[in-house]
Structures are given as C-alpha cells and as structure tokens.
Records
---
Amino acid sequence: MTLLRATAVAAILAAGGAQAQSTTISFDTLEQPGFFGSVFTSYSESGYDFNSSFLGFLSSPHQGNFAYAGSAGLGASALSTTTLKRTDGAAFSLSTISLADLVSFPGSYDVTFVGHQVGGGTVTQTFSLDGSHTFSDYTFTGFSNLLSATWKEGAFHTFQVDNIGASVSAVPEPATYGMLLGGLGLLAFLRRRKNAA
C-alpha cells in the first residue's frame, strides 16, 4: 500500500516538475566595430522575435558610435513601437532588462513597457533613465504569462535595450501527462479501497 502511494506521489511530482526555460537576450551577435550601427527590419534571438512599427527598422550602435553604451544593444527610430514575441507563439515572462540612452536631448526621461497577457489583460511598468550612454539594470514586476511586450521610443529621447531576462514554461512531454494520469488513478484507487474497508 505504501509503495503504491509513493509511486502515485512521485508521478504527480514528476508531472509538475517541468521547469521554466530561462534565457538572457544579449544581442552579442550584433557586436562589431565601426562608426555606424547595423539597421535591419527585424531581429530574432533565442526563440524571441523583435519587430518595429515605424519606418520598419531596428538598430544596434557599435563601439565607435557616440551612442555606444558598453555592449551591443537594440534600439529603434524615434516614435516607433518595438514588439517582442516568442517565435513559437508561446506565453513567456520577463524578469530583467538593461536600458541606456541611444540618441536624445540631454536629461532624464521615462520609458514605459506594456505586457500583453494571455486572456487579454495588460501590465505596465515605467523606468526612469538618466540620459547617459551607460546601461543600467531594471527589474520587471508582474510581467508573466505574456503573449507580447511593447515599448515606444520618444520623439526626442530614444533608448536601447540589452540583456533581457526572459523565460517560458517547459511543455511537459506526453509521457509526463501519462504519469500524471496514472498517479491520479492510483490515488483514486487507494481512496476507494480505504473507504470500502
């Protein structure tokens, strides 16, 4: 009896043991010397896609550029909205991000991120940038179960993103579902026998 109960519990734990797959989107492949940054219509890394709504381009400053902030980052043109999604359409979470000034008037300014959640809800968070060409780290709160995330460049302040901490829940294997059902069946069987006794 104890062995059956232990087997059922192990099956349930195994089914719930799928861990989130975490990654840091670092844009390292965009790093190269030169004065001008790269310009491209879309960018993909580690299963995540980035697209821009305005003028259709994203950019990455290089070491010789006055906007270089210490590593390759991803920026966009003024007034554009950048959208981040999973390539496979899965829901994901954001935990951290690094932000730095790209091209802007002097002074600090705010940057707002909007997470579009599964089921239609949204979550927003605003970070204040100091206007320097140096990356600073920020932490997201509540940016989970997202279908996409968006952020908009200003008219007079544009910024770049780097080291985005993202994760997606691992999809259990079919065998894991079988173990879960088997474990639940064993628990139901044990309860029925106990009640009958």
Note: The longest strand covers residues 157-169.
---
Amino acid sequence: MSTVLPNAAQPSASYSNRWWQMLLGFVAMMSISSPQYTWTLFIHSLEGKLGATLAQLQVTFSLLIVLQTFCSPIQAWLVDRFGPRLLISIGCALSGLSWVLSSYVTNIWALYFTYGIIGGFGTGIVYVGIIGHMVRWFPDRRGFAAGVAAAGYGAGAILTSFPIAGMIPSSGYAHTLFVWGWIQLVVGVIVSQGFRLPSASWQPAAQTTLAAQHADRQSQRSYRAAEMLRTPVFWLMFIMMSMMATSGLMVVSQVGPFAADFGVKDTLVLGLAALPLSLTLSRATNGITRPFFGWVSDHIGRENTMFIAFMLEAISILLLLVFARNAAVFVVLTGLVFFGWGEIFSLFPSTLTDLFGTKYATTNYGFLYIAQGVGSVLGGPVAAYIREATGNWTTVFVIVIVLDVITALLAVGALKGMRRRWVMRSAAA
C-alpha cells in the first residue's frame, strides 16, 4: 500500500519546478525575518509605553530565539507530519500575528506572550520547515539550496529595516507593528500556498550520474530521528554546530560594544560612521556566505568547505584583535567574520541530509538546530560577562579563535571519516 505524502507535487503542475520552490522558500523566509532583525528599532518606544527596563524588554527577544530554536524538533515534526504548505502557512500567520497583537499590548507580560512566544514558535516552524523542504528538492545542490533559503532570512530585514525605522517616528511603534505585521502575514501565507513536496517517483535530471558522484557522500536510505539520535556522527555535528554558533554569536552580538571600546564607533570610513557601515557590510556578507559556501561544498565536499570557512573566521578574529583600532580595517574584518560564520546555516543542514536522507529531513534538522539555541544562550551573555570580568575583549577573542580552530580540525579530522564510514555502512545495509 503506497503512502501519499501531504502536499506532494504532481509532475504536470507548475510548482513541480524546483527552482520555483526555491523562490517561494526565499520569499517566505524574508517574510519572517523582521521580528528578529528589527527588534532593536522598537526598544526605545516600548520602554516609554510599557514602563519596562531594557533588561525586562530583552527577555522578549530571548523568548523569541529560544522558542524558535529549542522547540524546533516539535515544529519540524509537525511540518513532516502535515506537509509544508499547511504548516509553513500557519508559521507565517503566527509570525505576522505576533506583531499585530503586540501593537495592542499594555504590559510587559503581554509582550512576552505575543512577540516572544507566538512569534518565536511561528518563525521556528517556517525556518526549519523551509530548510528541510529545500534539501528534499535539491539532492544534487543541497548546500546551495539550503544557503539560498537561509539567506532569505537575512534579506527580508534589508528590505524592511529602513521603512520600519522611518515609520516608527512618524506613525508610532504600535501602528508600525500593526501594518507590517499584516504585510508580513499576507505575503508569507500567500507564497506558502505554492509549497509541494516532490512526488515519490521524482528524481533530478542525471540522477544516475549524481548517485555515482555522491556515492561516498550521501546515504541512499532515510533515517528517522530516533535512529539518528543514537549515532555518534550526529552528536559530533551537534557539538561542532554548537561550538560555531557560540563562537560566532560571541562576536556578532557584540559588534556595537567592540566598536565603542576600540574607539572606532563614530570614525568616518568613506564618509560614513564605522559602526553602521560595519553592520551594513556584515549583514550583506552574512547573507552571501550561505549560498556561496553551500555551492562550494557541493563541489569540494562539506568537510573541506567547513575547514576553509571556519579557519577564515579564526584568522579574521585574530587580525581584528590586532588591528581593530583602525576604523577601515575594523569594517572590513567584521564583514569577513560574518562571512566565515553565516555558512553554518547551509553546511550543517546539507551535511545532515547527506547522512540521514531526505524523507525525515525537516524533523532531523529540527534536532540539530537546537545547537543554534545553545549558541544563543552561551554566546552573547558569556562574552559580555567575560568582558566585564576582565575589562577587555582579548579573552573573548581568544576563546572564539580556539573554538573555530577546533571545529575546523574536527571537520577534516573526525567528521569526514565518520561520514564516509556511515555512508558505506548504510549502502551495505
């Protein structure tokens, strides 16, 4: 008896074109990016309206990230169980609704529930759902496809940051949340109607050649999460992603304090203040690196690409420690740091799907994505504590360099061999 997958594509339908699926995924990711990336624009207004302290308000952001990451196994299982069209529609609706409801709140607890809990759960469904959807449709370009999807999460904020920043002083933060909440909800729900899983018989062109090329890279069987969680190779990847998430967030969450302490925050570079120029460049490189290194990994292997990217971040951090008081160098090096870090969101999900197959890809990535949550808990707060305890950033930078180098060496020294043996064992079975 055959099992019909929810929302499976029919060969004659226009949405069976996988590049169309990639475009839909990119746009849906854009529609949920603002809650994370534009949160800082609302803080001052919310402080005045709710009478809350900065520390109390930042709990909202922590809830958003925690619900987005630590609930990802549940969110991913729901997507695999009920299909991407329904669940990603619900996720986009929850994400937009969180802003609409937040426009009415009159106390901090209501903000925690609307912006933090509803928004976090909704964005988490969409994020893990689309990453899992992309690696299903692109077995021959998994790194690139996951990278494009992940890049959409940052690209949306590029389009919305300036309009939202301009609307808050002219119309008020509440009206801004209401209007943009509905815009993001409508866009996300509409594009989600086009999502379909590939049919059971679908294969990319030149499947035979593809199978030969990736015979030592990709398992030909799909493994459930319960099986995956019993394998050492999964836990090695979880540790590696946790280390890279922690090291990256130690830096990316502290760029403003770095610039202030190094005395370059307001220094002009090409006629612009160093800090906003750095943030603009870093946002661009953080988006570009995901499809770029994903594409590279499709050609030279995931582990080799990890080694190159992680060492690039380590070297950039070392140079930043030495030359950070030069404003122009600070701008360039912070861009390189983001370029060496953001690719974890394409390399790890594509590697995981190579190892454990496509059928349960979304659920499986939901478990691995918890590593990002570990990094968010350890990265920013720990870096700030170390800075306060030592009075400088040197210790933080050294820790980041060490984590980057260790993870790079684990990629080529441990993960590569474990992955090869696992794929061979899978083929033999």
Note: The chain has 20 helices and two strands.
---
Amino acid sequence: MTHILHPDPTKFEEIGKPITAEIFRFNPAVDEKPTMRTYVVPYRRRMSVFTLLREIYENMDPTLAFRNQQCGRGICGTCRFRIGVQGQSVKGCAVPLEPGAHVIIKPHDEKKVIRDLVVEL
C-alpha cells in the first residue's frame, strides 16, 4: 500500500520483474461486450492489487474506471474485485503482489457493471 506509506509514490524504484495484469474492460455506452486488456506494469515495493490499478490509471491509462478510494486496511470493501482464473472475491487493498506476477482482475459482480471495474453497490 505504497500510497499510504510513502508521501510520493513516484519516487519508488522499480524492483524485480514487471507485473502483467489482465483487466476487465466494459463501457456499456460504447461497447457491445466486455473485453480483457493486458497491461505490463513496473513492480514497485509493497504493491497491492489496488496500488497496481492506481499505477495503471495514473501512468498508463486514465480511462480505466474503478472505485479509487479505500480505507487502506481491508475493512470498507470498496476495493472488492474478483481475482484470478477462479474469480476469487478479494479486497484489492489487502492482496499483495509479488514481482513478475500475472494477475487477472474482474469486477466483483459482472451483472452490475457500471463501467470497467465499477459496479452498483
């Protein structure tokens, strides 16, 4: 959770192999069906799924939609996603990532998608 532990996350050094993230993308206003988009993101110390999404949004793709707020302690659940091939439901702020990881991220409930990873609460 680098955004909490360091005042300027842009000063972190890249360490280890980059993370490959496959992320669910769907904008009902323009898309007929959902797609998966792949991003290769430099690994930085203490990355979580949530900080990975922030890194993508801030430095690679500002069109990525996700609830960009969190408690940072795994309590509130606003950062809930389905992770991996099996689609395990997790709180993104509480899932640490290792260098070189390959992660699949989908919305918590695909039936309630507003856009990308944002769902009706």
Note: The first strand starts at residue 19 and ends at 25.
---
Amino acid sequence: MANERKFVSENIRRVLLKEYFRKETEMAGFGGIDIQRTPMGTRVTLNVERPGMVIGRKGAKIKDLTRVVQEVYGFDNPQIEVQECRNPSKNSQIMAQKLAIALERGWHFRRAGHSTLRRIGDTDVKGCQVKLSGKLTGQRHRTEKFKYGHIKFCGEPALTTMDRGFAVAKKKLGVIGVSVDIMRSDSVLPDEVTILDVPTLAEVAELEVVNEPKAQEASEDAPSVEAEGDQSRTEGPEEETSEKKVSKRKQKRIDRKEASGDENADEDGPSKEEVTVKDPETDGGE
C-alpha cells in the first residue's frame, strides 16, 4: 500500500500545481503543462499564448513561480520553461478560457458559443464540440452544446484523438462550466483505411521485361550445374554395380557348366550342326 499511496500523492501534487499555473497565467492564455522528472531536478514546461506575460520584466515573475513550486509544492530543483503556442485556435484549453472570459464580459452564450465554434472550424481540425452548463438564461440550470465536424464521445478513440479543455465563467447568477473538445487534425480513426497505389499495365509489363532475362539465365545455368552434379554423383556407383552384376553372372555360368559337365559332353558327342534327320520315305525308295 505504500507504493500506491506514493503514486496517489504524487498525482495530487501535480494536479494542484496545474491548477495553480492555470490561475496565475490565466491572462497569458494558459494552454497546458508538462511535468518531467530528470536527474538534474524537475522540468516544468508551460504552453501559453503570450510568453512575455509569464516571464515578466527581467524574469521577475518566472523567478517567483519557481520559488513557489519549490517551497510550496515540494518539487526538487524546478526549472520552468515557457513555450509559445503557435496556433491557439487548435488548443482546447486556450479556447475554453477565452470563451469563459467572453461570458464574464456579458456576451450572450449562443453568440459566444458559435463564435468559438467558427474560429476552431476555420483551422484544419476534424471536429469540435463546445458545451456550456449552468444558469444560462434563467433560474434553472441547463446545458447547451455546439458541434462541428467529427466527434468521438467514448472508447479508446475518444481518449487518444480528442483534446479536452475546461474553464469556469463566474457570473452573478452563478458559475457556468465551459468545456471544449477538439479532434486533432493528425488523429487516425480505426475505420480509416489507406489504399496503396496500384501499378498500371504498362508498369507491370516493363517489370516483366526487365526480369525475364535474369530468370532465363538463372534457369539455363541451374540445370547444367545440376546435371553435372548428378553425373558426377551417379557415374561411380553405376559402374561399380554393373561390374558386380557381370562378375556374378559369369560366376554362375561357370558353376553351372562345372556341375553339369557340359564341357566333356561337347568334346565327346557330335555337335548340333553334324546331326542330320533322315526321312523314312526317301530311304525306302532308295
């Protein structure tokens, strides 16, 4: 349980630091914070619309922020880095803060909502949603939504492709919650499929013409090498086996002749050519 409590306390400390910077850099256009622990200390990166207001004259304000981060929130050797937001219309936190300021100044909620939606839609984002919750026109609480483009409400795509910003507008009747959700222009949805370029018939024919000579050379060389290898492999065993077969046959013939005595019979008896068959009729007539 000690490790779990340590993780919880660390995250609580980071959330409190984020809320502190949001309040201190509200007029400078707070766009987000990134906290990283390094061997040299803690690096805090602020993303704001107007960095000059955060740094202050001769760096006086950023020195005060660094002192508060170290003494109040207990971060070791903090180093605050301020970055300028290049396109504030695509930052959900900056747009939510601007919409809250517009409501506090007396803008009608529909005019402010449509104006914010139009400004975000002029960029290359895929979609956005502006939601206002609170006492907008009367004593009863209600919620108004303004939508543009493609939006994901739940699931993994909503967590990975949507940027969420939240701010609070304080009015006489009560507070109004302002939330802005923006789908980034570089976000890839699960149902998006990219088809590769299919080569034309002319390109395929050129590839075949180029590859044909190489294939022919390879096919001509391979059988000759294989044949030579087969001959070199089979020449020796075939000769040996043929010689063995001939020697066995000769040996069998010699054994048979010795057993039957064909050699003596051939010497004593008449040969097949000398024996003649006489016809009885011709002999009687004579």
Note: DSSP finds nine helices and seven strands in the chain.
